[in-house]
Design brief:
Rossmann fold, 3 domains, 5-stranded mixed beta barrel, 3-stranded antiparallel beta sheet, 16 helices, 10 strands, 17% strand
Length: 416
């Protein structure tokens, strides 16, 4: 699941390249387009993969779209990938955030204090992934090899500080002194950066493209942080809290986002809706994975959008291939009814098996299989449930009486 089509295309690209597969186009019963393919996990088991996205961004559209998809297809595992904004005091561009919880940070109530100033009274209601997936993610390192092959763009910060540091040299006091090929390689956005440095409230560059205070820039080499800044070679993964809001932010809103949940390191728009929707499907495991594309500040741009989309998709591919197996995550067509019964408070015991059924199953193998299959098909047809729709066990058994359930269980046990 992705919030944007460009994020979905990144998933398709990553899975296609690393799994040597091609995606096909499909449509849900309501006409929503999706893409699907089959890959192998690390134990050589086949996994069907579906990629989908809502018609528009935002939590409401995400929840409505995802609910319809989950009801129709009932996957074993659901993931959401894409981009987010990160707190620049805690993360770097390209870093991956695995959400241990997600909440809406702009919910609550706005009141006026005694001085007439607006005060936001937060009402956070965090939603979580299933405990097993989160526990596995906490110690998961299978992403490292795949992500090391992904080429990251040069951040604007690295380009800016390289330019400033280069201008402190006697040989390159003006931008014009720097060879053009070096400019294009080291600082592809140099034209934009030069314009910004010239037009700051306190300009750093003169109109002749030289440093206004050369000595002051040179002194930065001896500060608390390394200068010039260099992007890290590999992203880091953080299993931390993520906040969702209803607007794209470029005003560095992390103080507000961290008020209800102190450990929040990233914000976006759809993650809380994703986890909240999955809470209504307790038999489906899930994980929300986003990568940092900007810092939600005035320097926000699209430079890291593609890299962040590819990075989060690469992480989830590695996670799925290692963790989604028949052993760790049994297929829903065998176990879904038991999980749903437990969630609703019903007994997870199957109906008692009668002696008639035991006798029925003791006949010749081929004859038993054919008779059971014919009987089950008759049951399904009688209740107007088409076997070709591949309905879940829970959906089918809700339409059956006690004797018909016994027969259906016999068929499933025999063909397990």
């Amino acid at each position: 699941m992705c919030a944007l089509a460009e994020e979905a295309n990144a998933v398709i690209e990553v899975f296609s390249d690393h799994c040597n597969t091609q995606f096909e186009k499909g449509f849900s019963s309501t006409g929503r387009e999706y893409r699907f393919t089959t890959i192998l996990n690390n134990t050589a088991e086949k996994l069907k993969v579906m990629v989908t996205w809502p018609p528009d961004k935002g939590g409401t559209e995400t929840s409505l779209h995802l609910t319809q998809i989950l009801n129709e297809f009932r996957p074993r595992f659901a993931a959401m990938t894409g981009i987010c904004a990160g707190d620049k005091l805690k993360v770097k561009l390209g870093d991956i955030v695995v959400a241990k919880q997600a909440f809406v940070y702009d919910a609550g109530k706005i009141v006026l204090d005694d001085d007439g100033r607006s005060v936001h009274l937060h009402e956070a209601n965090p939603h979580h992934p299933d405990k097993n997936s989160l526990q596995y993610a906490n110690n998961f390192s299978g992403w490292e090899g795949l992500l090391s092959r992904l080429q990251r763009p040069i951040s604007k910060r690295q380009q800016t500080e390289w330019l400033l540091n280069t201008l402190t040299s006697d040989d390159t006091r003006r931008i014009d002194d720097i060879p053009s090929h070096e400019l294009e390689t080291k600082a592809p956005q140099w034209r934009k950066i030069v314009n910004e440095l010239q037009n700051k409230t306190k300009p750093v560059l003169t109109r002749n493209r030289t440093l206004r205070e050369r000595q002051k820039i040179a002194q930065l080499r001896y500060g608390n942080e390394a200068f010039p800044y260099v992007d890290p070679p590999q992203p880091k993964v953080y299993v931390e809290s993520l906040a969702s809001g209803n607007a794209v932010r470029a005003d560095y809103p992390f103080k507000d986002a961290q008020a209800p949940v102190r450990g929040t390191i990233a914000i976006e728009m759809e993650g809380a809706a994703f986890y909240r929707t999955l809470a209504d499907f307790p038999s489906i495991r899930c994980l929300l994975v986003k990568a940092v594309s900007d810092y939600a500040d005035r320097d926000k741009d699209d430079t890291y959008h593609r890299y962040a989309s590819l990075a989060s998709a690469t992480y989830i591919l590695a996670f799925i291939r290692e963790y989604v197996t028949d052993k760790t995550m049994p297929r829903l067509d065998q176990h879904e009814h038991r999980a749903e019964h437990k969630h609703s408070g019903e007994s997870d015991e199957r109906p008692a098996i009668t002696s008639e059924r035991e006798q029925y199953l003791s006949g010749p193998t081929g004859d038993v299989s054919a008779r059971l299959y014919k009987s089950v098909v008759e049951i399904l047809e009688k209740r107007d449930i088409l076997i070709g729709r591949d309905e879940s066990i829970a959906t089918i058994e809700n339409a059956l009486d006690q004797n018909e359930r016994i027969l259906l269980y016999g068929f499933l046990d025999y063909n397990k």
